[in-house]
Structure formats: C-alpha cells, structure tokens
Write a structure and sequence with these properties.
385 residues, alpha/beta
Length: 385
C-alpha cells in the first residue's frame, strides 16, 4: 500500500447488462445489486448503516435515499444522493470514507442502477407510498402529519391547546425578527385554534407557510475559522437516521428517527439537551416540535404538553426555542426552511441576534426533518471558547 488508507472497499455487486428490461423496477435492480455487494462483503444487511445512491430512481422524484432505504429494509445513520453524472460512482467512494472517518456510520453501501424499457412496456410503480398510502388518501404532507398528531392525542391525551402553544410561541418569537413572514402578526392560542382545520386535528396556523427565500452557510476547518471575520461557531456533534419514507411504514407514530440522531449528536458533543442555550427544532408542523421535545429527553413520552405549559420558549425564557420564529413564524422557503434553524443558531452563538439575543449563548441543538418524520439530522453547535 503506497499511502495511508482513507477507507476500504470490502464488497462488490454487479448485474449483467441487458439491452432492455421488462417488468423490472429501479428499486428492484438496486435491491439485487446491494444484496450481491453485502453478501460479497460477508456482512449482514443490518450491518449497513450508510447509504449513497444516485438521483435517478424512477419510482420516486424526491426523498430518494429514504425510499431506497425503506425498500431495502435498512435504517441508515447517513444517507445521501450523489449527483455527479458519470463521476457519481467514484464520488460515492470518497464520500463514504469521509462519513466513516467522521464517525457518522461504519458500513456504507454505494449503489447505482437503472432500467431501460420501451414506453409501452413500463413496469408498475412499486414504491410503497404509491401502494399503501396514496390510494387510501394519505397524499401530501398535511394528511400525513395529521396521523401522528391524532395518534399522540389518542395515546397520551394531549390536547389541541397544548399543540397550539407551540405555534403561538413561534409567532411570539417572530415579532422580534423583522425578516419573519409573520413579523407584525402575532397569534394567540385562541387564534391558532380558531384557524380552519386543514387535516384533522391540524389547524391552518399549525402548518408552515411556503415562501420564497434562501439560506447558506460556509464551513471551514476550526483552525482556518479563527483567522476569519467572525467568531467561529463549531460543530461539536452530529447524528443522522433514516427509518422509512411512507407514513404507513413508520416504526412509530409518536417517536421518530430524531431520537437516535439527537442521542448520537449529544453523545459526541458530551452534552445533554437540557444544557443547551438554544433549541433550534425543525417545525414544519406543531406535532413535529412536540415529538422532538419528547425524543430529546426533555420530558417523558407523551409529556410535551405539560412541559410546554411549565416553560418559557422566548429568547429570555428558560428554554429558548426557535428564537427566529421557527418556520411556523419565519416561513418555509422550501428546503432552505431547515437551514433557517442553522443560521439562527449561528447568529445566537456569535451573539449577533440583536433584541432577541440569548444571554451568554454557548450551545445549540439544531434538528432537521425530512418527509414524514422519516429523515432526521441533529447537530450540536458551540460558541468559540
């Protein structure tokens, strides 16, 4: 070996090329190729905790890694699309090695596959969400997120007013952020409950408003950051987990993949959720925040309602949560909505949040959520010492 190993390829899988496929699906070809590679590596399927896949999966236009993971029956701690055309295969290898070196996962499967059919002989879509969700009315995010909320209320006795407190707090925080779409438009718990039911029991004001916008961050090494313009904000821990794509395939309707993702991130940072200066929780719906509070260990399962009633979520409260207004108060600029939580955490940890500045902010727990409580990432960020 000429140089230091950055990682090792332990198994390979390959299908015989054919001019045309009949009755085949992209997911089926991916599954067979992965099976061969995992067997060649001498591993069990459950040992695979990382997934890299190409963007061209005919059965789904989005949430590609979650759809593939669901079909394979794995729950990776790192999952991503690599879209580099003919360079995708080679690009996957170093990304897999980097993820392993970062401690995100231990065994990554990298897979690319495609069908080639005549238009007249296209095979049916076997994506589970198309078979088990959409035909029964679970089409779109509103209905899919209403199901966990219904289950939480049925299982734990949580109330509409308790969920509404989350949206009201987001609106309160938005009043201190001139950039927020709902700046100048506060809403009380009664206002939230008076807004129209969109998908029972979800009210209109418990659902993010789609907006246009953009968010970005620049990441460098800790050493280089100290020579730049602002005080650096350090990544102290990260965790990730993908459990499913279709809500019908969710392992639980009252707890999600953020639980292990946050546990991993906090463990790597050597911190706990109740030690955070800021909780920057993804909040596409009020039920998402409720589940995250419980999954973070801030209260027992089913206990978010009492926890919300006992704590203050403003910048000057005992548990500041989404001080920029969250997506419920700031707005959701599509996928950039999740990045708003990162940007606010950086502002707070650089002590640049103005009138909403948390006193002596040192640590922030940031979460991201994709699909329907399906794809989860957690970060612990820290101010420069």
């Amino acid at each position: 070996m000429a140089g230091r190993s950055l990682g090792a390829i332990a198994g390979i899988g390959e299908l015989k090329p054919v001019r045309r496929t009949q009755g085949a699906t992209t997911l089926g070809l991916i599954a067979e190729t992965v099976r061969l590679a995992v067997e060649d590596a001498g591993l069990d399927k459950d040992a695979i905790d990382g997934l890299l896949v190409g963007p061209q999966v005919g059965e789904t236009p989005q949430h590609v890694p979650a759809t593939v993971a669901e079909y394979l029956g794995i729950q990776p701690r790192m999952a991503n699309v690599v879209d580099l055309g003919g360079a995708s295969g080679a690009g996957m290898v170093w990304r897999a090695a980097a993820a392993i070196a970062a401690g995100m996962c231990d065994a990554v499967v990298c897979v690319l596959a495609n069908t080639r059919e005549d238009e007249v002989s296209r095979s049916p879509n076997r994506n589970p969400i198309r078979e088990f969700d959409v035909p029964f009315g679970a089409s779109g995010a509103n209905i899919s997120y209403a199901l966990p909320m219904q289950r939480h209320m049925a299982e734990y006795g949580s109330t509409p007013a308790q969920f509404a407190r989350i949206a009201a707090a987001a609106r309160d925080n938005a009043q201190l952020n001139p950039l927020a779409i709902f700046h100048g438009h506060p809403a009380s718990v009664d206002d939230i409950l008076a807004s129209p039911i969109i998908a029972s029991p979800l009210h209109l004001y418990e659902i993010v408003m789609p907006v246009a916008g953009g968010e970005a961050v620049v990441v460098v090494s800790a050493e280089r950051a100290r020579g730049l313009k602002h005080l650096p904000v350090h990544l102290l821990g990260a965790g990730e987990k993908v459990t499913h794509r279709a809500i019908s395939q969710a392992p639980s309707l009252t707890s999600g993949p953020l639980k292990p993702a946050m546990q991993q991130a906090l463990a790597r940072a050597g911190a706990s959720a109740d030690a955070m200066s800021l909780l920057s929780f993804y909040d596409c719906y009020t039920v998402m925040v409720a589940m995250t509070i419980e999954d973070a260990g801030l209260c027992p399962a089913g206990g978010f309602g009492r926890w919300i009633e006992d704590h203050s979520l403003g910048y000057d409260g005992d548990f500041p949560l989404n001080t920029h207004g969250g997506q419920l108060g700031f707005g959701q600029p599509d996928l950039a909505g999740g990045m708003t939580h990162v940007v606010e955490a950086v502002r707070q940890l650089r002590h640049e949040a103005g009138v909403r500045q948390i006193r002596n902010a040192q640590l922030a727990l940031v979460t991201g959520n994709g699909a329907t409580v399906s794809e989860a990432t957690a970060l612990v960020l820290g101010a420069d010492a």
